[in-house]
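User: structure tokens for this one?
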Amino acid sequence: MVTAPEREPDRETGDQRRARYDADDVRSLRERVAETGWRKRLAARRSVNHGYRIGVGIVGGLIVAFGLVTIPLPGPGWLTVIAGLFVLATEFLWAERLLEYTRQHVKRWTDWVGAQPVWVRVLIALTTAAFVYGVLVVTLHLTGVPHWVPGWVPLWR
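Assistant:
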């Protein structure tokens, strides 16, 4: 007997997602910030509110840009990008959606890595460490070694 192929589940539409969010007691970061007293006072004056939103956009955008530049360098590049999105999400719906999308994909990645055998996790860690080391060596080679770095660090000093 031939069975019909399994149907892919229907994707949730934007209206369905908004209805689901409205149906439960989940309040977004943007909504929680908007309900504070200081934010209500700013929102009451249109020119001040507009300036505040522009300021949040500039500060959040600069944090995201700095994070994107520092991603290949050792340090908290992705964490800085997420922090910038967090700042932007206090005022902008698109940033809130992007932050949620990022959260879901990071969770999927960590769940996947956690389900792998130990040798795969070790291989991922070693590959990541080798990449970071390579970027650090190339960066030091291109920009020069700061004078405060001990003489034994790079071989080309």
